[in-house]
Amino acid sequence: MTAEQRAITRKALRKYGVRQWARTPENRCWQEAIDESILYYKEHDPLRADLLQLRYFENRPEEEVIERLHIGRTTYQKAQQDLLSTIAINAARRGAF
């Protein structure tokens, strides 16, 4: 995953749920990709689902997320990278990139 793809994915996560954001076809692709990722992680990896919720949807600071999830910084960084990669792959399959 390139730095640019990571930045685009983070931007989509920040906009997710904002009123009328998903009205464009590109943003609908992102919304569907994020929705699919949420469902996947809720079922298969609750830690990453919680990280996604706390960091991106509740806008909690990194330190707070680490503390609340009782994980180390390395685990946090790996989990975050996995999240961003999964969402980006799902978005790419829908034509968002």
Topology of this protein?
Blueprint: H1 3-15, H2 25-44, H3 46-57, H4 62-69, H5 73-93
Helix pairs in contact: 1-5, 2-3, 2-5, 3-5
Key features of this structure:
mainly alpha, 97 residues, 5 helices
Q: What does it look like?
A:
The structure is a single chain. The chain is an all-alpha fold and 97 residues long. Helix 2 crosses helix 3. The N and C termini lie close together (12 Å).
- Mean pLDDT over all positions: 93
| Separate helix tally | 5
The portion of residues forming beta strands comes to under 5%
| DSSP E strands, number | 0
**Uncertain parts:** none
Radius of gyration: 13 Å
Largest sheet: none
* SSE string: HHHHH
In short:
Helices cover 76% and strands 0% of the residues.
